[in-house]
Amino acid sequence: MPDLPDAATCYELLARMALIRRFEEEAGRQYQRAKAGGFLHLAIGEEATIVGTTSVMRDEDFLIGTYRTHGHAIARGTDPNRVMAELFGRVDGTSGGRGGSMHIFDAENRFMGGYGIVGGNLPIAAGLGLASQYKGEDSVTVCMFGDGGTNTGNFGETMNLAALWTLPVLFLVENNLYGMGTAVERHSAQTDLSKKAEGYGIPGTRVDGMDVLAVREGVAEGIRMAREDARPTLLEAFTYRYRGHSAADPEVYREREEVEEWQEKDPIENFAKRCVGAGVLGEREVQQARDTAEETVLAAAEFAEASPEPPLDTMYESLYATTDPSGWYAVDERSPEPHRGEREESMPDTARELAEAGAAYAGRPEGPRPNPALEGDAREGTAHNVEDSGEQAVNAQEDEG
After folding, report:
1. Cis peptide before 325 (omega within 30 of 0)
2. Which residues are within 8 A (CB) of 234 and not within 5 positions of it... i.e. 6 or more apart?
3. N or C terminus: which one in the chain shows less Cβ crowding within 10 Å?
């Protein structure tokens, strides 16, 4: 078991974990109130893996995750107000209310986003590492993903490129024992996930993901190897989520006894007890960390509630990342004046009029849709009905006779 660091560091680790736990609890409550929309994936129970990782990263390092990343952004320095506002779909959110829970993003703090595709962040992490290498920068990329991500094609392809190009990337598997509702032994032939990149020449190790200090130690070494030796590594952190895969998960795939067993390993409670027992922190400091987390999260919920929703006329903004000059990513041919598909906000007047006319038509009173067999084909501008068609068929037969 790693030694405890100084009191200031212990307090910071505890406070961050307490903040993330309380934020996730409140996010779940707001989801139940239908304030947070879309999908919601909570990381309650995984705080030590998150905080242990980010606590040894430099400001210039990159972090990229998947879709359980509210805590990752907060641990990297993102204002909880902005994260909560994003869950609410409001303009003050990290992505202007357009991403929601699964797409938290904060380039300023070099948190390069959460991604809803399992394994989808892996090649992006390789790209970040390649960019650092190409520019001659000293930054390292930490890529965090779930156990299910190790079974994707992206995993093998990314490991091969990372090893081939000696990219400065630490790949960290947050193994919470379930890929959605499927136990790791049922979805992975190799259950020691730290070995799954050995065939590509990438070494792997395992750490206790419920121990914030063990994670700190393992990640620090992986980052050192990436930064100093230009060598990618794979780290598997055993952790556990106390809630379902998402807020809509009925959790029929695991027993209550299993969850309770892992709750006894709670990363926050056990770390607090250890700090108090060693005399590094007192009960007063522990309670102060909890109280501060409570105040911060309640303020974040109020901030998100007060933040306005994005105006409807901004719907076409921020759809593409574009530079000038550049080629056309898409061509919109809905009018006689084709325009760049990624420039919806500056479409020609004719295109806008046609689009708005279509939207107005879509808003007609509800009712049964016209049946072409009875009312004709609008494309031909005719209104033949079934009886007319039958009469024409009879007449044609008589003529042939």
Report:
1. yes
2. 159, 171, 172, 173, 193, 194, 196, 197, 202, 203, 204, 205
3. C
What one-character-per-residue DSSP string does 287-302 give? Answer: HHHHHHHHHHHHHHHH
Could you tell me the pTM of the whole model? 0.82
Helix (H, G, I), strand (E, B) or coil at 73: helix
Contacts of 281 (CB under 8 A, 6+ apart): 7, 10, 11, 14, 272, 275
Half-sphere exposure in the Cβ direction for 304 (13 Å, CA) = 29
Structural contact between residues 214 and 244, judged by C-beta atoms closer than 8 angstroms: no
Q: What is the DSSP letter of 111?
A: B
- Look up residue 349 and give its amino acid: D
| pLDDT, tens digit only, all 401 positions of the chain | 889 999 999 999 999 999 999 999 999 999 999 999 889 999 999 999 999 999 999 999 999 999 999 999 999 999 999 999 999 999 999 999 999 999 999 999 999 999 989 999 999 999 999 999 999 999 999 999 999 999 999 999 999 999 999 999 999 999 999 999 999 999 999 999 999 999 999 999 999 999 999 999 999 999 999 999 999 999 999 999 999 999 888 899 999 999 999 999 999 999 999 999 999 999 999 999 999 999 999 999 999 999 999 988 887 777 777 667 666 667 777 777 787 777 777 778 887 787 777 766 656 555 565 565 565 544 444 444 444 444 444 444 444 44
Contact 219, 172 (CB under 8 A): yes
**Which residue's entry shows tokens 């100084």?**
6
Dihedral, 129, 64, 20, 318 alpha carbons, nearest 10:
130
Ordered alpha helix ranges (H), 66-118: 70-76, 80-87
Angstrom CA distances, 82 to 77, 85, 131, 306, 318, stand at: 11, 5, 28, 12, 18
User: How far apart are the C-alpha atoms of 196 and 25, rounded to whole Å?
Assistant: 34
Distance of CA 355 to the CA centre of its chain: 32
Q: What are phi and psi of 213, to 5 degrees?
A: -75, -35
CB atoms within 10 A of CB 357: 10
Longest Cα separation, the chain: 108
